[in-house]
Amino acid sequence: QVQLVESGGGLVQAGGSLRLSCAASGGTFITYVMGWFRQAPEKEREFVSGIDWRAGGTVYADSVKSRFTISRDNAKNTVYLQMNSLKPEDTAVYYCAAARLLYTVPTAATRYDNWGQGTQVTVSS
Known about the structure:
With 125 residues, the chain is an all-beta fold. The protein has strands at residues 3-7, 10-13, 18-25, 32-39, 46-51, 58-60, 68-73, 78-83, 92-100, 114-115, 119-124. The chain contains no helices and eleven strands.
């Protein structure tokens, strides 16, 4: 099992940027697919982005494609989500998640079994 801790959330004006970080410990980080999810009040938890462990292949939800960029630094056991051109509808609690030894990036939350506690992102208009 891997422990995950998110950071980097905050309040930002529409059009601004934030970079979220997820630090992992307690597992072999390079063997985990890493994903970002978000959940707004009274809405379903939704997939945002993910990155695999083999060659850094990435997947993005249509709602964030071209605005968000996921990356990982295996030496630091950390995955990042760079968020640009933020919109009020991006407001949510953002969670990182890990899935061990998968060969593609799943978009279903049920495929991930290690979760961080979340970090709040609020985008004002």
